[in-house]
Design goal:
heterodimer, A: mainly beta, six-stranded mixed beta sheet, globular, B: mainly alpha
């Protein structure tokens, strides 16, 4: 009897739980449709409107979001506490909805926002930010970063800066100034007056300093600048030329090239004790070093094989291993902050390319090309690369040089607007 | 005595439950016809004639300025341009990536009229684009260019009206593919997520008898923000598809396999964003 009952139960449970299984292989990768209604609140100085616009612009320019035209919105919020009518937002195919308000009090602003999953009808994230009113752009970038991170699962990059060389004037009398701006081109500030030639600026991880190369004293030398007060100091007073500097991930060391007697090698310079250590000793030209994010390895380029190629070594200079084997030559390698890729410049058959490969040299992909493209630098989240592109000389003898950025997928090759020509961009870390 | 009564009571309950569950099945089995006789061309079977879409949604869609993503497209087999095999040299990879970029831009402008050899053009910051995940990488292009499944080439055991006990066996391959294809069309994932090639999401979807989704459960232990984002996008895909009325993939089950509801009231859906391709 018991056995019979058990058998019946087994048959029933088997039949009831035989769920149909279906595999869904592959997905679309289109910008996520998001609704960003005008922020509500008591803002009397147009700040709500301005913050809304910056959030929309950030999301749109990331190309991972498509901000739905506000004219299409069915529900219009009058208060931050009005519950969303999800069906209204599903109707316009919004996958996510941002609901936010700005409260102004004196020169302070309090911004509250909540991101909704329109189809799951759930809150995805909610935050409140307080800041001085003049920080409204930063507040907008932080909101956009929060949305980006919550929807894509990766840190954003909107609240970050780019340092670069602003250029103007004819080719033979070019004025090059060190400049810094927000990643979207706002808040441009010049840090040098253009008297000396400056090149390859890089941010320190704490964003307080910039290291760069300058011809201020007649020969190329590495300088350190305090961003706040623009004070500079020459580093090390090395014999020979020092160039291609870059901070270690912790910011306590600088790695750079030193050239003496026609030979260039990689050195690391300890900022605390001002001690320098030679990492490579080779008659070939070794240059453009860049640390891995864990600071355990260094990528650099060298012509020791007869042609410029990329090499990876341990942080102490051991275990040098070539990683690039393609045709052409490779230069300016830079390790992604995610650690998964190394970006580089490649020159082949007279054409320049910006590409990426995995740290073991596999999976090489070329993302952008041009008459002259050079100097890739990673966004703080390792998702985008900024670089500069120079066009061939036009009839008037001018060569347009502009900053660009491209998604790691190889799409969205976009110009970053600058008032003058621009080159040598370097992206900062995330500022918040 | 009490024990015997209890056993008897439980046994009766079970017998009644068994009858309720399977009474249809037993009756149909008696007067069934052999499956071979019931061959029907599935192209003549309409699976999406009526809609369960709420009235409000239909009305609002017609009023709205934005057009939701082409609901009828799923029924057609999209024309795909044959794609060249990925090459050995880096330069060719670049050319391919650039041509795919151009093609994807074109396709959004000219509805899938792909011109693979066009050069990349620089786009202004505000330019909006969309591209197909399939054209993400040249190396994975070929795998992804499989045409949308149709219902034309399969056997018709699906309409034997409960003849087979196991739905997994009687659901035709094309129907299964169509359900997967429709879900894929609803699924949008950021292709550049770190480690996406290793992410697979398992979801349990509970479906009502009318084909509407009642509940969606993510089964994975979400160990990273990236995995969470992909899992949520998969859940969203199910809900977006559910919102498509007659074009919902689950309508196929409700309309053709009502007698097998027990077997599709709970679906196990496995979402693989890159289908094992190398990124």
């Amino acid at each position: 009897m018991k056995k019979l009952l058990f058998l019946i139960l087994v048959i029933l449970s088997f039949q009831a739980s035989a769920a149909l299984k279906i595999d869904i292989a592959g997905a679309k990768s289109e910008p996520t449709p998001i609704a960003v209604p005008q922020f509500t609140g008591n803002s009397y100085s147009n700040l709500a409107q301005q913050i809304t616009e910056v959030v929309r612009a950030d999301l749109t320019n990331s190309n991972l979001f498509r901000v739905i035209d506000p004219d299409a919105y069915i529900q219009h919020f009058t208060s931050f506490y009005t519950p969303p009518k999800f069906q209204d937002w599903q109707t316009i195919s919004a996958h996510a909805l941002l609901q936010a308000e700005v409260q102004e009090e004196g020169n302070r602003i309090a911004v509250s926002f909540r991101l909704w999953d329109v189809y799951a009808e759930q809150s995805m994230v909610a935050k409140s930010l307080n800041a001085s009113a003049d920080q409204w752009r930063k507040v907008a970038h932080i909101i956009a970063d929060t949305i980006y991170e919550r929807v894509t699962g990766e840190k954003g990059y909107f609240d970050s800066k780019i340092v670069f060389i602003s250029e103007k004037g004819p080719v033979h009398k070019r004025i090059r100034r060190l400049a810094v701006m927000d990643q979207d081109g706002a808040n441009l500030r010049y840090l040098t007056n253009g008297k000396d030639i400056v090149m390859t600026p890089r941010f320190s991880p704490n964003m307080k300093q910039i290291v760069y190369m300058s011809y201020a004293k007649g020969k190329p030398q590495v300088y350190l600048m305090n961003i706040e007060n623009a004070q500079t100091q020459a580093l090390g007073h090395f014999d020979g030329m020092s160039f291609a500097p870059r901070f270690s991930p912790k910011g306590d060391k600088l790695i750079m090239s030193l050239a003496k007697n026609g030979n260039s090698d990689i050195y690391v310079y300890d900022l605390a004790n001002q001690k320098r250590t030679q990492l490579t000793k080779h008659p070939a030209i070794d240059t453009s070093p860049s640390y891995s994010p864990d600071a355990k390895r260094i990528v650099f380029n060298s012509d020791r094989s007869g042609k410029q190629h990329l090499y990876v070594m341990d942080a102490n200079g051991d275990n040098v291993k070539r990683i690039s084997f393609g045709e052409g030559s490779y230069a300016t390698p830079v390790w992604s902050p995610r650690g998964d890729y190394i970006a580089f410049t490649k020159i082949k058959d007279g054409t320049f390319y910006i590409g990426v490969m995995k740290p073991d040299g596999s999976g090489e992909r070329l993302l952008a090309e041009g008459f002259l493209v050079e100097g890739p630098s990673w966004s703080p989240n390792g998702r985008l690369l900024t670089f500069w592109r120079q066009q061939p000389m036009d009839k008037s003898g001018h060569q347009t040089t502009k900053l660009y950025r491209i998604d790691i997928t190889g799409y969205y090759d976009q110009e970053i607007p600058t008032p003058e020509d621009a080159s040598d961009p370097a992206w900062s870390h995330l500022l918040h | 005595m009490r024990k015997n009564l209890l056993i008897s009571f439980v046994a009766h309950i079970l017998v009644i439950a068994l009858m309720l569950v399977d009474i249809n099945l037993f009756t149909q089995k008696q007067d069934k016809a052999p499956p071979a006789v019931l061959m029907v061309d599935l192209t003549k079977v309409q699976i999406a004639e009526k809609t369960n879409l709420p009235q409000k949604i239909n009305k609002a869609v017609t009023q709205n300025k934005l057009t939701p993503s082409k609901p009828l497209e799923n029924k057609k087999t999209p024309k795909k341009t044959p794609v060249k095999q990925t090459n050995k040299t880096a330069l060719k990879t670049q050319e391919k990536a650039i041509s795919k970029n151009a093609a994807s831009i074109k396709s959004s402008e000219k509805k899938k009229e792909i011109k693979p050899k066009e050069k990349v053009t620089n786009q202004p910051m505000n330019q909006k684009q969309s591209y197909d995940f399939k054209s993400l990488l040249a190396s994975v292009e070929k795998v992804r260019q499989a045409p949308a499944p149709t219902q034309q080439k399969e056997n018709t055991s699906a309409i034997t009206n409960g003849e087979e006990v196991n739905l997994a066996q009687i659901l035709t391959i094309s129907e299964r593919d169509l359900i997967a294809y429709k879900l894929k069309e609803c699924w949008n994932v950021d292709a550049g997520i770190e480690g996406i090639e290793d992410i697979i999401i398992d979801i349990q979807a509970f479906i009502n008898k009318d084909g509407h989704v009642r509940e969606v459960k993510i089964k994975n232990n979400l160990t990273s923000q990236a995995m969470k984002a992909v899992a949520e996008s998969a859940r969203r895909a199910i809900l977006i598809c559910d919102n498509k009325g007659n074009d919902s993939p689950f309508k196929i089950l409700a309309e053709k396999y009502a007698n097998h509801y027990n077997q599709w009231k709970e679906l196990e859906l496995r979402f693989n964003p890159l289908e094992g391709s190398i990124f």
